[in-house]
């Protein structure tokens, strides 16, 4: 990608050991956008429901959704246009064959803010490939059909390019672009910066996820 693609990028060091920690991070960092009606696409157990109250609606095919939906089998989200003030979609799109269509649908039902995150699959694959053994979470070839898996394998740059392209396509304004990496002691971070001075290559190796806040044109 061109260097200017990274100009507005912010960086933060945080790790998520459990899925609910991702929801709590979102609440802490983006609380100012979580006003009015909130739609959580791929809500899992609806970790934000108790914190956001009746304004919250979670959809998923399993877990504890308010509306049970298989995003790969529905032709549209069962909500009117612009019916939610903020739409959340955290680490969900990579699980869907029809992710481009689902993106179109979440834009349709969004009135103002759209908050998305995507994983950097290269970061998880880096060590097993370097060691020549091990496995990569949500990939591989299990002996039995898995309940869940990633259907797209991409790096940080590709995730950023995808979200920027969707933003241009649907006339979405970029409010914030955030790269998350796991906390590491400063000597390790210093060595990594020496070995990988290119920000793009560094993030492709070490950023575990990309977060973007879009604002929809009124």
Describe this structure in words.
It is a single chain. With 218 residues, this protein is an alpha/beta fold. Helix 3 links the parallel strand 5 (84-90) and strand 6 (110-119). The protein has helices at residues 19-30, 49-52, 99-109, 121-131, 156-169, 186-195, 199-206; strands at 9-13, 38-41, 56-60, 67-68, 84-90, 110-119, 172-181, 207-216. It has an eight-stranded mixed beta sheet. The mean pLDDT is 92.
Topology:
Blueprint: E1 9-13, H1 19-30, E2 38-41, H2 49-52, E3 56-60, E4 67-68, E5 84-90, H3 99-109, E6 110-119, H4 121-131, H5 156-169, E7 172-181, H6 186-195, H7 199-206, E8 207-216
Summarize the structure.
By secondary structure, the chain is α/β, with parallel strands linked by helices.
CATH class equals Alpha Beta
Query: What is the structural class?
Result: alpha/beta
Assembly form of the protein: single chain
How would you sum up the major sheet?
8 strands, mixed
- Would you identify the regions where 5 or more consecutive residues have pLDDT less than 50? none
Major sheet: order of its strands? 1-7-8-6-5-2-3-4
Give the amount of beta strand, in percent: 15-25%
CATH topology: Rossmann fold
Structural domains: how many: 1
Helix content bin: 25-40%
What is the arithmetic mean of pLDDT? 92
Main attributes?
Rossmann fold, 218 residues, eight-stranded mixed beta sheet, 7 helices, alpha/beta
